[in-house]
């Protein structure tokens, strides 16, 4: 039932499967699916291409297999294809390209999250998808597409770009070599936890045959109880067709969009630190940017850039990495008047120093009013941090933590923090 539902219904809103005779296997969720895909595709010493910032379990699944990840930069339309360090440069000029590494094998697998990318919130445009596919087709690179947020797409504005993306839908690809396991998409989809970590992988039969052998050697089929829960939900509550599921997704998407807009409004107000300075004849207003972000068009995350170079103590004496670590602790500590957890940017990239500029925040979990309060506390916490002196910053985190206000016993989850923002 699960395979039929995935092929007949869940892929239909995507414009169908763009190659003949697709097949699907069920998994125990996203991480389980990634482990099986990488177990099948990667060998010790291989290079896996990823987006520069990506879903951390993907890196965690590849690394134990001896694979090395190389992050490709992104812009507002998705993974970069042209230019130094872009996908085309990396593949055609390996290992001499900007991101190439001598002695490493040329990449043959690309992992990408095209809709509401985690953590950046970027949705890859149709034109960029075609560019990515063209280059990977020419270079015999398999694309592993992880797309759990497809049904959580909401326009940033009513611009021509977002209208065109919505109207075109589908993939728009003309596939060559449709029956081979390269130069095509392997779609790895996993529903959120209300699906009890059931998921599925869809791809060409040649690839799925090998993947099925890997599945039989480890987890086999997903939990029968979990499958029964899904069947009960789909058949009795949503109905045997897709309408009930789509209606649920529309309602969820509308709630997420409302919460996204609420968080965006607060963060926009907090992008600058406003100060007054006295001139000879007038009051001078000084604006210092302390954060910036792009409005996501899908998913549940905002990728927030903290502009550390405007901090009064940046590089004299504190490095960006030092300030980033102190800000994380400062925001999470009730003793400083804060109780907000964020996801540090270095959690989402292979090269940790590249993530110091960013934090990930989520608008998905908290109720709307709590989310507004948490967003305001986040903004106020960053503003106060810009006003701290050297001794105050050095003292952050030095006191012994005790009881329930310990920093989430390592994570801060479930302890009354406004907390789940970003985690």
Automatic annotation (TrEMBL):
Keywords: Aminotransferase, Pyridoxal phosphate, Transferase. Residues 6-376 form the Aminotransferase class I/classII large domain. It comes from Terfezia boudieri ATCC MYA-4762. Its cofactor is pyridoxal 5'-phosphate. InterPro entries: Aminotransferase_I/II_large, Class-I_PLP-dep_aminotransf, PyrdxlP-dep_Trfase, PyrdxlP-dep_Trfase_major. This is PLP-dependent transferase. Signal peptide: none annotated. GO terms for biological process: alpha-amino acid metabolic process. It holds the Pfam family Aminotran_1_2. Belongs to the class-I pyridoxal-phosphate-dependent aminotransferase family. Gene3D superfamilies: Type I PLP-dependent aspartate aminotransferase-like (Major domain) (3.40.640.10). GO terms for molecular function: pyridoxal phosphate binding; transaminase activity.
